[in-house]
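Homework-ish question, so no full write-ups if that breaks the rules, but can someone show me the predicted structure for this set?
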Amino acid sequence: MDNARISVGATARALGWVSLAASFAVLADDPRAWLERMERALATRNYQGIFVHEQDGQTETLRIVHRVSGSEIGERIASLDGSGREVIRRNGELTAYFPDQRVALVESGPKEGLLLTELLRLDTAGSAVYRLSEEHPTRISGRASHVVAVEPLDDLRYGYRVWIDDASAMPLKTQLRASNGRVVEQLVFTELSLPAHIADAALQPAIAARDYRWVRHAAPTTPESQLPEGNWEVAGLPPGFHLTANSTQILAGASTPVTHLVFSDGLACVSVFVEPASRQASSPPGVSVAATMTSVGSSSAMSTVVDGHKVTAIGEVPPATVRAIAGSLREGFASPRRPASGSHH
Amino acid sequence: MNQDELASQLSAMFDGELPAAECELLSRRLARDEQLRAVWSRYSVIGAALRAEPVAQVRPDFARRVSAALAGGSARAAVRRGRFLRRAALGSAVAAGVAGAAIMLLRSGLPQHEEALTAYVPSVARLTMPAAVVARPQTVAGGDELASYVVPPAGVGNNLAVPAVLAEYVVAHSEVSAPLARRSLLSALIATESVQPAPAVPFSVTGVDVAPVDRAAQANGQR
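A: Not a homework solution, just the prediction itself:
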C-alpha cells in the first residue's frame, strides 16, 4: 500500500512537474526498447496520417498532424466524421474547436518540454504490475512490425498491444486491453507519412472560429492567497500506484485554482483534481455525498465530494481503479472537522 | 417498474437503443412522472450548458426521436438511418451519461438527492442550479411536449455560459498522460457530440456506481 503525504502550496507547486521527468530504467530487454523507441517516435517525429478509432463497435476516423520544431510541438487532430471537431496544440496552448457548438476551449499546456520528457514510464514500479512480452513479428498495412504486449497482472489496470513499425518505430496499430483480454479500444493508422517538414498551414483549423465563443483559462499566475488550502493525504492507493505530481492550476472557464494530483503505476496515469465545492453540499464529514462515474473514450472519470471539496478523478484505467484512487484521498490533520485518520501526521 | 429498470430504460432511450414501443411507454411515463421530469429538466439545463446554448433550445435529435415515438413511429429505425443520425445518437450518449447519472443518484435513494445532484452538476458544467427547478412546459418552436420541459432561465445567469468543465479536466489530464493515452483522450474529446464528459463512442451509460464512497472499505485498501 502506498502512503503518501501531499502538502499543497507554493513549494509543491514549484516542484510539481519536476517529478514527472522520472528517470527511465535503461531499457535492455527488447520489448522495452521497442516501447521506448515508439514513445520517442510519437513525441519527437513529424508525422501525419489518418487513423481509425474503434471502441465498443463504434468507429471514428481522425486525421492527425504532428510537428516537432525545436522544443515546440504542434499537433492537430481532426474528426473526419461529420462533427468537424478539432484539437490543435500550438505555442504551448491546446485549443479544442467545437464547430457544432461554436465554442473554442483554450487550455495552456504544461511547462515547455514536458511533452518531450514525459514518455512511457514503465519503470521499476511498473514492472511489478505489468508483464512485458514480445509476440511474433508480423506485417500490418504491408509493413513489417514488432508486436509488443504489455499485460496487466491484475484487473486494476489495462494493458496494451502495440504493432510497432520496424522502420519508423511508429505504432501502426494500438489496442487497449482489459486484463481478461477484451479489447477496450483500438487505434489503427490507415495512412501515415513522416514528412521532414510540415507547413504551418497543416496546423490551422479547417474552420473559421473568429465568432466562436472562446473559453480561456484564467491568468496562469495565481495569487498566493487564492491557492487552495489544506493538506491532502492518500491512504490505501491501489497497488502499484504512487503520487508522481502535484500542482495547482486554473482550468479554462474556471475562476478558482484546482489542485491537480497525478498518480501513476509506471504506465497508466490517473489525475485527481481537488477544488472547493462551488456549492456546499453539506456532506457529512468523512462521507461523500455521491459519486458519479462516466467515461471519456477508454478513460474512466469520477466526480464526488470529499470533505466539502469537489474531487474529480480521471484516468485510462478501469472505473474501479479511478474510484479507489479518488476514495483514497482525504483531508489531512489541518481540517478542524475531523481528526486525521489513517496516515501519519 | 423499479428505479433500476427505469434508469436503464431512460438511458437506452437516450441512446436510441430502446425499441419504439418501450420508448413510447417511457415517454408517457416521463410525461406524467413529475420526479422523473424534474430529473429530465435538470438534464436539459445541463445539456444546454454543455452546448452553451440558450436554455430554451432543446436537443433536436432527442425531440425528434421522442416525437417519433409518440407518433407511433419507430424511433430506433430513425436513429439507425444514416451517418447524421448516428452522430445524433452519439450525442445522446452524452445525455445518457448525465441523465443516467441523475437517475442513478435518484435511485440511490438519497433523501437529499437535490443536494447530490447539485454536487454533481458543478462538476460537469460548473453550473449553479436555481433553488427550485420547475418543470414548466414551455413552448418551443417545433418542439414537443417532453422536450419543452426546461428550467426557467431566470437565476441561472452567466453560469450557463460556461461549457463543461469535465472537458477541461480531460484536457488537463491528457497533458500528463503518456502519448498513446493522450491521443486516445483527445480523440474521444473530439469524437463526442458535446463538450462533455461523455462516452466518446459507446451507446451505453458507463456510469454504474453511485453508491456513497465507503471510506472504511477504502481505508482497508480496496483490492
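Now go work out the reasoning yourself. Hint: The CA atoms of residues 28 and 34 of chain A lie 10 Å apart.
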